[in-house]
Design goal:
Elements lengths: L5 E11 L4 E12 L4 E5 L6 H8 L7 E6 L2 E2 L5 H11 E4 L11 H10 L7 H14 L15 H13 L5 E5 L7 H16 L4 E4 L3 H4 L4 E5 L4 E3 L7
Parallel strand pairs: 3-8, 3-9, 6-7, 7-8
Antiparallel strand pairs: 1-2, 1-4, 4-5, 9-10
Helix pairs in contact: 3-4, 3-5, 5-6
Keywords: ATP-binding, Nucleotide-binding, Transport
GO molecular function: ATP binding; ATP hydrolysis activity; transmembrane transporter activity
Protein name: ABC transporter ATP-binding protein
Length: 233
């Protein structure tokens, strides 16, 4: 098998307070390969959100190695991590995390505007319009997020995550705030993105959607455990 896009070895996360020490993750090993669709499941409080935050460089591990496309990122500063995150990782959140004061167009343009190497306006404008057209939202480009339905907002959130052509797309409970019809539509869109070559890692409580992934991982303790029908990590 080719080298993984993402590789974790011995990842530990400890939260310290004056009263106690909490091990949110303990010795997690994980590799994700180009074109995979990986789903991570587990009960509340098992460490899924902590793992996703570290995967997306929103937080850094207490110990262990984490490489993205061969670059060690576990010991970066927060500002260095933010730069890598903007270029390598796309995020889709349960709560959409769109900015109501900005238009749909400006919301999805944000990742491109924070790049180390600025993208010429004509090039970025072309890319933004193509992405909106891909999800059937070109006619909503000038609208504000609060003028859209939940399903439409999640489509825009997906476009924003993809516009920078990330190496990895992280998806956190993408259907949690949607009804079943819109949830099914969003998951079908994610499935199609994966079929087109996008590498996905998704956290979900819904077993119907978890089973759409090509590989299912389960966290029942602070360590990552494969499903019984899979080989060990």
């Amino acid at each position: 098998m080719s080298k993984p896009i993402l590789h974790m070895a011995g990842i530990t996360k400890v939260f310290n307070t004056e009263e106690m020490e909490t091990h949110a993750l303990r010795g997690v090993d994980l590799s994700i390969y180009l074109g995979e669709f990986v789903s991570i499941c587990g009960p509340s409080g098992c460490g899924k959100s902590t793992l996703l935050s570290i995967l997306g460089l929103l937080d850094l591990p207490t110990a262990g190695s984490y490489q993205i496309e061969g670059t060690e990122v576990a010991q970066l500063s927060l500002s260095e991590a933010a730069t890598i995150r903007n270029e390598k990782v796309g995020f889709i959140f349960q709560s959409f995390n769109l900015i109501d004061e900005l238009s749909v167009y400006d919301n999805i343009a944000l990742p491109l505007r924070y790049r180390r190497q600025p993208i010429p306006h004509a090039e970025s404008d072309k890319k933004l319009k193509e992405c909106l057209e891909k999800v059937g939202m070109s006619h909503r480009a000038s609208h504000k997020p609060n003028q859209l339905s939940g399903g439409q907002q999640q489509r825009i959130a997906i476009v924003r995550a993809l516009v920078g052509t990330p190496s990895l797309l992280l998806v956190d409970e993408p259907t949690g705030n949607l009804d079943s019809r819109n949830g099914d539509a969003v998951m079908e869109m994610l499935r199609q993105l994966n079929s087109d070559g996008t590498t996905l890692c998704m956290v979900t409580h819904d077993p119907r959607y978890a089973d759409m992934a090509s590989r299912l991982l389960h966290i029942s303790t602070p360590q990552l455990v494969k499903e019984p029908h899979e080989t060990a990590l």
